[in-house]
Amino acid sequence: MTIEYTEQNNENQTAKYREIADFASIILLFSSAIVNTTEEDILLVFASVISLYAGALLIKAAYLEADAQQIAPGVTTTANKLKIIGTTGSLIFSLILFAALLIEVSVKQQATISGQSPISGTVGSLFA
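^ that's the sequence the OP posted. Answer follows.
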């Protein structure tokens, strides 16, 4: 009985991190569409906020994946550790770009970059 419960629990965790990663990729696509179709500052800020939220979801998905794929209790794989580091780093870099975007918008310069660039590349690692 314990083995069945553990396998079922792992399947539920796997489904959960996949759902979170899928949702994050959809909202990143939405954010990217906004960035690529408009030059209005308020929409770029909105798209960046959406992107930052997606980055936070990707970090959550990376932790859930690492938890579900432990090779021993409390021991995760190197690949999953790198996914956690990568998603966290992407969010940090995106926060820096978001701060730059807010500064550009506040001094009325035309914004040329949004805070989503690094996050977009991290989604694929969670689907492998």
